[in-house]
Amino acid sequence: MVSYKLIYFPTRGNGEIARQVFKYAGQSFIDERIPKEDWPSMKNDTPFGQLPVLEVDGKQLAQSIAIVRYLSKQFGISGQSSWEEAQVDSLSDQFKDYRLEARPFFRVKMGFGEGDADKLHKDVFVPAFKKMYSIFTKYLKESGNGYLVGGSLTWIDLAVAQHSADLLDADGTVLDEFPEMKDHQKRIHDIPNIKQWIAERPVTSR
Ligand SMILES: N[C@@H](CCC(=O)N[C@@H](CS)C(=O)NCC(=O)O)C(=O)O
């Protein structure tokens, strides 16, 4: 039997979607959460000096999206064809661009940088968010079945639903003008294995 260990910090951050892929698939894994003070002594033993790292039978894989893609292929949620996989990757790249665009706002909001949060919200976050969530809505309408790509859940649904949930935690009205995306978040987080994980996972601020 394959042995899986996901090594990350004690936050959701860049480790959470891999954890959700495991949970969705009903695959057991070691969810190793490294306290900040232990990290410096481990850093040089990781492939790229950063976390998350996935260990598969002791072999290490770095970069969160590569990890999620690999696991999703193993467990059948990467897309039902090469075309669907490419659509998932395309949305994922756009999602990454959106987060880079909105990063100046998120940095200030999370206390990692200085700036006028209200101005950044209006000038940086809102335009980036509206562009991204309009695209997601278009994909949902095109698929017509509640998932972003194809006829069944893929990992991009997990990634986007978690982001939507994080946004809703900060502002319960944020998705009001994107009702399809509000439903999407609820639908994905109501999937029994995901719902159970969300209820039992360690509570962290991010
Ligand atoms: N693109 C990388 C980013 C990884 C990354 O930024 N990891 C941070 C935590 S979220 C980290 O390891 N920070 C500690 C360090 O750089 O020493 C990924 O998605 O895995």
UniProtKB/TrEMBL annotation:
CDD domains: GST_C_Sigma_like, GST_N_Sigma_like. GO terms for cellular component: cytoplasm. Residues 81-206 form the GST C-terminal domain. Keywords: Transferase. Pfam families: GST_C_3, GST_N. Residues 2-79 form the GST N-terminal domain. PANTHER family: GLUTATHIONE S-TRANSFERASE (PTHR11571), GLUTATHIONE S-TRANSFERASE 9-RELATED (PTHR11571:SF267). This is glutathione transferase. It comes from Caenorhabditis briggsae. The lineage of its organism: Eukaryota, Metazoa, Ecdysozoa, Nematoda, Chromadorea.
